[in-house]
Design a protein that fits this description.
By secondary structure, this protein is α/β, with parallel strands linked by helices. It has helices at 3-10, 14-21, 29-42, 48-55, 73-87, 101-114, 130-138, 161-175, 190-205, 222-233, 247-259, 296-311, and strands at 60-66, 92-98, 119-123, 142-145, 155-159, 180-184, 215-217, 241-244, 269-274, 290-293, 320-323, 326-328. Strands 2-1-3-4-5-11 form a 6-stranded parallel β-sheet, with helices on both faces.
Amino acid sequence: MRLKDLAEHLGLSQTTVSRALNGYPEVNEATRLRVAETAARLGYRPNASALRLATGRAGAIGLVLRGADELGPHMSEFMAGMSGRMSAEEIDILLITVDNFQDEMAAYRRLAASQKVDAIVLHSPTLKDARAELLLDLNIPFVMHGRTNIGQPVAWLDIDNTSAVERATGHLLDLGHRRIALLNGLKDRTFAEHREIGYLAALSARGVAFDSALMGNSVFTDEVAFRMAQAMLELRPRPTAFLAGSMMTALGVFRAIRQAGLVLGKDVSMIAHDDVFPYLNADNMYPTMSTTRSSIRQAGSRVAELILQILAGKPVEDVHELWPVELVLRESSRPPPQ
């Protein structure tokens, strides 16, 4: 089916149909939905090359990853969500890997000069993210997975890390735990700062003193978490509960608990942040893992949708989404041993 045929079927001009399919803001929502539904029902798909010629767009979004640590399971799940949504619009994802911060900044400048992408996804932002400032200067649309504070409006989607960790810490405190270890993300990342705020708020609300020896910052890997948890379990008094920053971190903590001759859910409790990996199900672990739960794949899909909205003309100051995080209690979090 050609665009002309679709327009005749709808009784609209080809220009109106084209603009409706491409998300132009001057087309009202009712018309846009009618055109989209009819196109889907009749199997119409616009020619990608013609579409790019007509809109002046590259038909791709960019994602720059720095170092091997950023190519782990979290990013693969996030990208799966993004690509699922973008493929429906015949938009590609251009992935660039770099070794350091300077190379990452240079990559954004190359993308701006080459006009190979229509927008950028910024991940793991810092509190004052220089990458966001650069992209604003380069006039490249972008959406952040996370938040920053640079004094200018930016589009973002984030989960409520502060509330999630405050609730999880509060639950462990209510069970009677007083030595609670937090295995957090890298210190400069916004999400890690927000999680630390929630952790400290829960301790303070119940009059429990903060012990810096019970908090570690690192990348979320099994091996790093194992070493950190191992060192913490050698403290006296040792922690009776752990807050693991991810399911990958939880695996390392679980290994350290077993090596110390302790039993998870009996001698030591744990609550992990669950990004909902299809191959690492908290319900199937033994004991089942208590989690703060939020799907990173769904976040990837939604970030892609927000990019499409921005490219269609939605102001970035209207693109702010803070998702609540569910606390799911299972067998790994119980009162401390007496």
